[in-house]
Structures are given as structure tokens and as C-alpha cells.
Amino acid sequence: MPANLLTLRPPFPPAQIKYLSKIITVPEEVFLYLALLWRKIHLHRSASCEAEKNMEPPEDQIVDIPKERLNFFGGPGKMLLPGPATVAALIKKIPEHKLATTNQLCQELTDQFKVRGTCPVTTQLALQAVAHDGTRKVPYWRVIKGTGGLFSRFPGGVEAQANLLKKEGFAVDRKGKMPKVKDFQQNLVRFH
What's the mean per-residue pLDDT of the chain? Predict the structure, then answer.
């Protein structure tokens, strides 16, 4: 585990981490990594602890794919748990007037790190951390869901993301439960 993670106060006591990692059926190191990343996101949302807020974000980790996720990833191998810095660097490659889905981010990271897969949950948590980090100038709003949907957990929710996308010329369909970018497939970035 990266040294900077050890300096953050874990969000749960060690015994509870062990218990929760068994209930959620992920290895303890994966659970702790996700919990610390979740905590970092919430520290960015509230200015309650400046010392922890200004710490380096969690680094990337490559771990074995948990047994429970073998079907999802298509077999055994290594899985990337991306940190916010890696996700931010990839988002910066999305030019103006282009979009990327979270699935595309995962696939590109999988290719870059030469692993079997990238954890989609960790990728979304890192994406949220990037979105809520006001110190980075990253166009996070150009990342959408695989269906074209917008993210309610971005700063300002779907309305703010919709407004930022409209400024770049995208049309947003507000019919249905969640707003979606119209014809988003035509505007997806090609990383290669």
C-alpha cells in the first residue's frame, strides 16, 4: 500500500475493515483503498480537515482480480485500481467538443497498464475526486455514463454538467429520469 495512504486516518477501525471486506466480498486491501478514496472525495466536499485534504491522492494499485469478479473481468489476472492523478491525466486528453464514457476510461487504462481490467467503481470514485478537486483544471464534465447519462455526483449535479456541456455545443435530452447527451456516440473521443 502506498505510504501516503497510511498517513490518512482510515474511515473505519481495522476490525470493521476486515468484517466489511468479507461482507462486500473484496480483498481487505481493495476495500481499504476504496474507503480511503471515498474519504478523500468527501474531504474535498467539506473543508473540515485541511491537513488530510492537502495530502497526495491515492496512487494507482494493481491487484489480483478477486474471485467474485472473475466472471465480470473474463477470468483471472491483474486489475487496476486507478488513482485520481491517472484519471485526471486521461481526461485531459479529451479535446473540447469531444466526450468519453466511463467505459472508455476503463478500457484505455486497461490498455495503458497492460492489465486484464480496470475496476469501474474505483474509476468512478477517482473521477468524482477529480471533479471535486478545485485545484485541478480538468474538464471532468466531458466524461459521461455509457448510456450518455450525466453524473449527479459532480459539483452542481447534472444541471451543472449539462450547462458545461451546452457551452461546448452538446445538446442534452431531458426526457426520462436522467438527462442524457443527444447523439453522444458521434462525439466520442478515440484515445488511440
Answer: 81
How far is residue 31 from each of residues 7, 47, 89, 100, 123, measured CA to CA in Å? 17, 24, 24, 27, 14
Range list of H helices, 24-156? 28-45, 50-53, 70-73, 84-91, 102-113, 120-131
Burial class of 71 by CB neighbour count within 10 A (0 to 12, 13 to 18, 19+) = exposed
Pairing of strands 61-64, 143-144: unpaired
> Per-residue pLDDT tens for 44-72?
544 444 433 444 446 899 999 998 889 99
Contacts of 107 (CB under 8 A, 6+ apart): 118
Work out the angle at residue 150's Cα, subtended by the Cα atoms of residues 132 and 177, and round it to the nearest 5 degrees.
Answer: 130
54: three-class secondary structure by DSSP: coil
Supply φ then ψ for residue 130, to 5 degrees.
-65, -45
Angstrom distance (rounded) from CA 109 to CA 80: 8
